[in-house]
Specification:
The complex is a heterodimer of chains A (326) and B (310). Chain A is built from 14 helices and no strands. With 326 residues, chain A is mostly helical. Chain A has two domains: 143 residues, no CATH class; 179 residues. Chain B folds into three domains: 30 residues, no CATH class; 103 residues, no CATH class; 141 residues, no CATH class. The longest helix of chain B is centred in the first third of the chain and has 30 residues. Classes of the chains: A mainly alpha (326), B mainly alpha (310). At the A-B interface, helix 2, helix 4, helix 12 and helix 14 of A face helix 1, helix 2, helix 3, helix 11 and helix 12 of B.
C-alpha cells in the first residue's frame, strides 16, 4: 500500500478503513439466518401465519427484502432486515409451497434454484451472492436422487467452477475492477470446498462408476494441463516436455481419485497467486483425496506405508538436488 | 486483505481502472520467477517431510511381525536423532530445521506408541499423549515456528482432555472448563512472549488461542444458562470483563468472534429469563437475537470502518 502512496496512485487517507473480513460476513450471516428462522417461529406462535399461508408470507418477505434493498437507505438496520427477510422468505416460500401443492423434491429444488437466480441478479451484496451460488449448487446436486446422478452433478459443478476460477485468475485484469469479482470468485472457491466434502456421504467412488470417473479424469486433466501450459509459458520454464510427461503419468496414476487432479490444479494456481481461500481449498481437498487415493490402492498397509515413505524421500531428494544446482 | 482493499479502491473509483497493470506490478499480485522457485522448494520440503513421517506412522500401524522390536525402536530413534542433528547443525530459523523439528516432534509420538505396542503396558491413551507432550516441550522451547507450537498445543489439549475424562472422570462441560483454563494460561504465555520478549510472530497463535478460548467460554456459559446452574452468576461476572477486553482487540477476526459470542450469550440469557414456557422462550430468544444482532453488528462494522488497514 505504501508503494501505491509513494507513486501517487492513492492518497494516504485512502488506506483508512478496512475491508470486511470473511469471519465478519459469517457472523452477519449466522445471526441473520437465526433471526430469519426465528421470525417464522414467532409469527407461527402468534398465529399470524400457518401452514397454508406460509408461502404467501414467504413471497411477501422476499418482496419486502427486494424493496428495502433497492429503495431503502443504506443503513445497517436495512441491511440486516433485508438479509433476514430473504432467509425467512426463502424458507417460508419453499416449505409453504411444498405443503400446499404437494410438490415432489425435484420440483421444490428447482423452485429453490430459480429463486436464487432471481435474487442473484436483484440484490448486489457479497453475503447474498455467496449464499445464492451455494444454494443454487446444492439444489442442483440434490435434484438427482440416485448416487450416479449426484456424482454426475458434483463432477459437472466441480469442473465448471474450477474452469471459471481458472479463467478469473488468469484473466484477472479483465474482471478485478468489477464490483462482483470477489462475490463470484469467493463463492465458487467456497463451493469447490463444499463439493469436496459432498461425495463422502454418497459412496460415489464405488466401482460401478468407472465411466464417470474416466470422464471426470479426462476433463480435469484438460483443465490441469491448461493451467500448466499457462504457467510454464508465463515463467518461460525449460524441460517442458519432461514436465508434461510427468504430469500426464501422475494424472493416469490418480485415475481412481480424479478430484486429486483438481486439487493439484488449484495448487498450481496457489503458486501463481497467493490466495488464502484457494490455499485452504487446495489443502483440504488434497489431504482428503490423497488419503482416499492411498486407501483405494489394492496393496497391504505395509506396501502403502513404504510407498508413502519413498514418495516423501523422492520429494526431499528433489529439494536437495534443486538446491545443489542453485 | 491487501488485494481486497485495492479492489474496494478500484470499485470506489479512487484508483483509475487504467492503472491496473501498474498496481499489479507494484503490489506483486502474481509471483515472480524467483518467488515461484522458492515456493516449489518449500512445497517439496514440507510435503516430502509430511509424506515421509506419515509413511512411518502407517508402517508402525501395520505392526510388521518379521521386523525385530529393536530394529523398530532403532528406526524411529534414528529418525529422531538425524532430524534433531539436522536442526542443530543448521540455523534454527532455516526451513530445513523447521521441517526436521516437525518430523522429530511426530517421531517422538511414534516412539511412545511403539513402546506401548511392543510391551503391551496396558496404559491408558492419556499416558501416551502426556509423555508425547512432555517430550515435545523440548522442541517448542527451542523453536519459534508456529507449526511446532500448534502441533504441541493440539497434542497437549488431547492429553488434557483424555486425562480429564479417563482419570478425573469429568463430563463434557467440566472437561471444557479445564481446556479453557489451560487455554487462558497459553494466552498469557503468548502475550508475554509477544510483548516482553519481542516475538511478534506468535501473534497468529495468540489470536488463535483467543478465538478458541472465547468459543469455549461461550459454550460453557450457554450450557450453564440452559441448565440454570448456580455457577452461572460467577461465570457471567467473569465473562463481562473478558468480553470487554476482547472487544478492545485490534484483530477484527477476534472482534467478530466476540460479537458472535455476545449475540449468543445475550439471547440465551433472555431465553433463560423467559422461564419454562417454550413459546415465551422462542419469542424472547428471537427478539433478543434480532435486537442484539442489529446493535452489535452495527458496532462491528463501525469498528471495521475505523480500523486502519494493516
Amino acid at each position: 500500500m505504501q508503494r501505491l502512496i509513494e507513486k501517487g496512485i492513492i492518497k494516504p487517507e485512502d488506506i483508512e478503513g478496512n475491508t470486511i473480513p470473511w469471519i465478519s460476513h459469517l457472523v452477519i450471516f449466522i445471526s441473520t439466518f437465526l433471526g430469519g428462522v426465528g421470525i417464522i417461529f414467532v409469527l407461527g406462535i402468534m398465529r399470524i401465519i400457518n401452514e397454508d399461508t406460509l408461502w404467501i408470507f414467504g413471497l411477501m418477505a422476499l418482496g419486502g427484502a427486494i424493496f428495502i434493498a433497492k429503495g431503502g437507505k443504506k443503513t445497517i438496520e436495512n441491511y440486516y432486515t433485508t438479509l433476514m427477510l430473504i432467509i425467512a422468505g426463502e424458507i417460508a416460500f419453499i416449505v409453504g409451497l411444498k405443503v400446499v401443492s404437494s410438490l415432489d423434491t425435484t420440483a421444490m429444488l428447482l423452485w429453490l434454484a430459480s429463486l436464487q437466480i432471481v435474487l442473484f441478479f436483484t440484490i448486489d451484496d457479497y453475503i447474498q451472492r455467496v449464499h445464492n451460488i451455494t444454494l443454487f449448487t446444492l439444489a442442483f446436486v440434490f435434484i438427482s436422487q440416485n448416487a450416479t446422478g449426484i456424482y454426475f452433478m458434483i463432477m459437472l459443478f466441480t469442473l465448471l467452477y474450477s474452469g471459471i476460477v481458472l479463467h478469473m485468475v488468469f484473466e484477472q485484469k479483465r474482471y478485478f475492477t468489477q464490483a462482483w469479482f470477489y462475490h463470484i470468485k469467493d463463492a465458487l472457491i467456497l463451493n469447490l470446498l463444499i463439493l469436496t466434502f459432498l461425495p463422502f456421504g454418497l459412496h460415489h467412488l464405488s466401482t460401478e462408476l468407472t465411466g464417470l470417473k474416466i470422464t471426470f479424469t479426462f476433463f480435469a486433466s484438460i483443465l490441469a494441463l491448461f493451467t500448466l501450459y499457462r504457467l510454464l509459458n508465463l515463467y518461460d520454464v525449460g524441460n517442458q516436455i519432461a514436465i508434461y510427461t510427468l504430469s500426464i503419468l501422475l494424472m493416469i496414476a490418480f485415475y481412481p481419485t480424479p478430484a486429486l487432479i483438481i486439487a493439484f490444479m488449484l495448487l498450481a494456481l496457489c503458486s501463481y497467486q497467493n490466495d488464502k481461500l484457494l490455499m485452504v481449498v487446495w489443502l483440504v481437498t488434497s489431504v482428503i483425496f490423497i488419503g482416499y487415493w492411498y486407501y483405494s490402492l489394492e496393496f497391504s498397509l505395509l506396501y502403502k506405508s513404504l510407498s508413502m515413505m519413498v514418495v516423501g524421500l523422492i520429494m526431499l531428494g528433489s529439494y536437495y538436488l534443486r538446491r545443489m544446482h542453485a | 486483505m491487501k488485494m481486497r482493499k485495492v479492489h474496494k479502491l478500484f470499485i470506489e473509483e479512487r484508483i483509475d481502472k487504467a492503472k491496473y497493470d501498474e498496481v499489479a506490478s507494484l503490489l506483486r499480485i502474481n509471483a515472480s520467477k524467483e518467488e515461484l522457485k522458492e515456493w516449489i522448494d518449500h512445497f517439496l520440503l514440507w510435503m516430502g517431510g509430511l509424506f515421509f513421517i506419515t509413511g512411518v506412522v502407517f508402517f508402525f500401524a501395520y505392526n510388521w511381525a518379521e521386523m525385530h522390536k529393536f530394529a523398530k525402536f532403532g528406526l524411529v530413534f534414528a529418525i529422531i536423532f538425524s532430524t534433531t542433528l539436522i536442526a542443530l547443525v543448521r540455523p534454527l530459523s532455516s526451513i530445513v530445521s523447521q521441517v526436521a523439528l516437525f518430523v522429530a516432534m511426530v517421531a517422538i509420538g511414534i516412539e511412545w506408541t511403539l513402546f506401548g505396542q511392543i510391551y503391551q503396558t496396558g496404559a491408558d491413551a492419556w499416558n501416551l499423549f502426556v509423555a508425547w507432550s512432555l517430550f515435545g516441550i523440548i522442541i517448542v522451547a527451542t523453536s519459534t515456528h508456529v507449526l511446532h507450537w500448534l502441533t504441541w498445543l493440539v497434542i497437549t489439549h488431547i492429553a488434557l482432555a483424555l486425562f480429564a475424562t479417563q482419570v478425573l472422570e469429568f463430563d463434557g462441560i467440566e472437561t471444557m472448563i479445564i481446556m479453557a483454563l489451560f487455554s487462558a494460561m497459553i494466552i498469557a504465555l503468548f502475550y508475554l512472549l509477544i510483548h516482553s520478549y519481542a516475538m511478534p510472530h506468535f501473534r497468529w497463535l495468540y489470536d488463535l488461542n483467543l478465538a478458541y478460548f472465547i468459543t469455549l467460554f461461550t459454550l460453557i456459559l450457554i450450557d450453564e444458562f440452559i441448565g440454570y446452574s448456580e455457577a452461572m452468576r460467577g461465570l457471567l461476572l467473569l465473562y463481562i470483563p473478558t468480553i470487554w477486553l476482547y472487544l478492545k482487540q485490534h484483530n477484527m477476526i477476534i472482534v467478530s468472534l466476540s460479537v458472535l459470542s455476545l449475540i449468543f450469550v445475550i439471547s440465551s440469557f433472555f431465553v433463560m429469563l423467559a422461564g419454562r414456557d417454550v413459546e415465551t422462550k422462542i419469542v424472547m430468544g428471537v427478539l433478543s437475537l434480532i435486537v442484539s444482532s442489529v446493535v452489535l453488528i452495527n458496532y462491528l462494522l463501525k469498528r471495521i470502518k475505523d480500523a486502519k488497514t494493516h
